[in-house]
Amino acid sequence: MSGKRITVVTGGASGIGEATALKLGAAGDKVFVADVNRQAAEDVVARISAAGGEALAKTLDVSDDAAIEEVFARIAKDHGAVSVLVNSAGLVQNAETVINMDMEQNDRIWAVNYRGTLQCSRAAGRQMKENKGGSIIMIGSINSYRPMPLAAYNPGKVAIKGLMEVMAAELGPHKVRVNGVAPGYTMTPAIQSRIDSGKRDPQAILDMQALDYFIQPGDIADGIHFLCSDAAKAITGVLLPIDAGWLTATTYNTYPAVPDA
Hints:
Elements: E1 6-10, H1 15-26, E2 30-35, H2 38-50, E3 54-59, H3 65-79, E4 84-87, H4 103-131, E5 134-139, H5 153-171, E6 176-183, H6 189-196, H7 202-207, H8 217-227, E7 239-242, H9 246-252
Parallel strand pairs: 1-2, 1-4, 2-3, 4-5, 5-6, 6-7
Helix pairs in contact: 1-2, 1-8, 3-4, 4-5
């Protein structure tokens, strides 16, 4: 078995997951790119390998409990206990009201975004607890802190923040850290497609931020790399906003008075 850290990145074939898999692969981890799209996962693995890293692809639908158990058990048996889990698999949503939302879509988003994160964290957490160490990263959102007209996605990201905090307290005595990142509007393929189709206004995004900057998946990967590194050994239970100042600016800019020049 390899002496490298065993790292699993769910949703690792695109967007934030892809950027994170590449980042952790370059940092020396043995990365398992777990994604429902096997060919895309293989492509990411090839890029990691071409850069001198070590990676393997795993087909995984995180809404399938049995598949999660099988994948994590197989990794542990063949390669060793998982040291790092990045829960990047997720679905996005267009604006929708609660009273009019499509319940089938609601259930699918919860199955992937929340339950998928929960079940993967449980599977990895058991291994880390037994191995007395590890790091779990969850993907929250600015939605974890503010209400938005995303009837399923928004409450799910609030729930992920709570899950992260509960697991941080539960697993901390076993030297397992549980943290997360809260991305702002990040230029993933999913967000770019919504901009292209007119579902998102890019200028409105910039106007709501403190920084005039479009967040890239690599920016989120940098934060994840820090949180699961020894540089963050005293940090657990933290959801780190990486939002170009969106959380700050949205309250500052709506204050009902004009500051003196």
